[in-house]
Amino acid sequence: MKRIRKITILGAPGAGKGTLIQKLGLNVPTISTSASLREAAKSSDKGSFFQDKDKGAINLKELMSSGQLVPNEIVQNVMKERLNQDDCKNGYLLDGFPRTLEQAKFMDENNLGLDLAILLDTKSETIIERMSGRRTCPTCGAVYNVNTDQKPKVDGKCDKCGADLIQRKDDDPEIVKKRLSVYDKDTRPVVDYYQKKGILETIDGSKSLPDMVKDVLSLVNL
Ligand code: AMP
């Protein structure tokens, strides 16, 4: 069996990727694209403003909370730098990348090609219910859901660090609809791309969390 080291989990926003990833416990770092983008915005000397070749100066934080995708070139540069850091030497699990066909091709062209793409296939009704209940920790990034069995132990507080949980701006129902349509337009072609390459596996997102974890672990020898 080919050793699988470089993995991405694909799925619509709210499909449950973050919750699943938290429970996998794989032997490689999880690289969240949005966390890497936020980190890049924090450490940039231009504040949250980045230069895009087509759009000029864009405010990364504002763009990210509007439900639109960050331009390919900016995300690609941030991810290339992150994936070339030492902790990624033996592989990685990507959350939120690639999200466009151009990003998928960029990975292959830059020696970052994946061994496995896992599609978490979840119905849109389930997604909408999950997203309206999602709460996140602004301090450590932990994800909870007040509509499922992933509730925090103490109402409104993070189990891990005690911070006050928040509802992300982009989990607002209008923005959720926008994000789902962005997913259909931009990310479905990525699913087709990996299917054609023969490295796509699909997990049923309506299963219980332990069953989904089992399904992923049966695909990954890490
Ligand atoms: P997420 O937390 O993964 O839902 O991402 C939040 C926001 O980060 C998205 O709405 C986008 O603005 C941005 N983002 C995350 N991943 C990507 C990506 N691969 N390409 C472009 N924008 C991204």
Which descriptors would you attach to this protein?
222 residues, 17% strand, five-stranded parallel β-sheet, alpha/beta
Shape: globular
Low-pLDDT runs: none
Cα-atom radius of gyration = 17 Å
Strand order of the largest sheet: 2-5-1-6-9
**Secondary structure tally, helices:** 8
Residue-averaged pLDDT, rounded?
89
SS-derived structural category: alpha/beta
Distance between the termini: 12 Å
Beta-strand content: 15-25%
How would a crystallographer describe the biggest sheet? Answer: 5 strands, parallel
* Hetero compounds: adenosine monophosphate
Give the strand tally.
Answer: 9
What's the helix-strand series? EHEHEEHHEHEHEEHEH
Bin the helical content: 40-55%
